Amino acid sequence: MKKVLYITAFLFGVIASPSFSQSTSIFPKGEKSPNVHHVGNVWLSELSSADSSFSYSTAVAIFDPGARLDWHTHPGGQILIITEGVGYYQEKGKARQTVRMGDVVKCQPGIEHWHGATPDSGVTYIATSPVLKGKTIWLHRVSDAEYGIKK
Questions:
Q1: Out of 7-11, 42-46, 114-118, which region has the weakest mean confidence (pLDDT)?
Q2: pLDDT tens per residue, range 83-115
Q3: 2-147 CATH pick, 3.90.1490.10, 3.40.47.10, 2.60.120.10, 2.30.30.40
Q4: What letter would DSSP give residue 18?
Q5: What Å distances lie between residue 116 and 39, 89, 93, CA to CA?
Q6: Is 38 in contact with 67 (CB distance < 8 Å)?
Q7: Taking the model in full, what pTM does it have?
Q8: I want to staple 90 with a disulfide (CB 3.0 to 4.6 A). Which of 14, 48, 96, 126 is the partner?
Q9: 55-65: b or e for each residue (b if 16 or more CB lie within 10 Å)?
């Protein structure tokens, strides 16, 4: 399985070091996303948009430590390939998972979930979704308790 992950990372042209560093990615950092559907700093760079031949889009997302998306769903699902750092992924009703460089996450169609960086590490991933089945449906903020902040 790890062999497949390394080949996948190579095919996407990802160059990553063991420590989190945004300068190691061959992809542009992209535009800082306005804080509408997330907390913290997130940069997005669309690598390939959907068209008449390919029904999915592919983008790179870079999260500062502590940044996280709101709860959301994808009508056609989504695949995340973690290329740098350490992050979280959680589906509604399940335990939060820690994800690291080399992990692949399959977000099933219509499943409520969120993902983002840990408080101490940024995270970068390549995301691909079949957008012609519908765009992301944004729900509500991830609470501090869900994220793991104890008061």
A1: 7-11
A2: 999 999 999 999 999 999 999 999 999 999 999
A3: 2.60.120.10
A4: S
A5: 9, 7, 17
A6: yes
A7: 0.79
A8: 96
A9: ebbbbbbbbbb
